[in-house]
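Order emerges. For instance:

***
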Amino acid sequence: MSDALKTSGMTRLRNYFLTGFVVCAPLAITAYIAWSLIGWVDSWVKPYIPVRYNPDTYLPFPVPGFGLIVALILIT
C-alpha cells in the first residue's frame, strides 16, 4: 500500500489544522498590527481635527482610520 492510504484520519486532521494555522496566523497578526497602528495614529491626530470636520460629532459611531487619512493628507 502507498503511504497516502496508510495515514489515519487523526493524522490528516492534525495536518489540516497545522496547515490552516500556518496560513491564518500571519493574516491574523497582520490584521491586529494594522488595527493597532490605525488606532494609535487616530488617538494622536483626532484631537487636532476641528470639531466641525470630525465625523465623530456627526455620526453615532466612530470612524476608524479617519485620523490616519488626515495625517497622510497633511504629510503629503
Summary: Residues 3-75 form one domain. The first helix runs from residue 3 to 6.
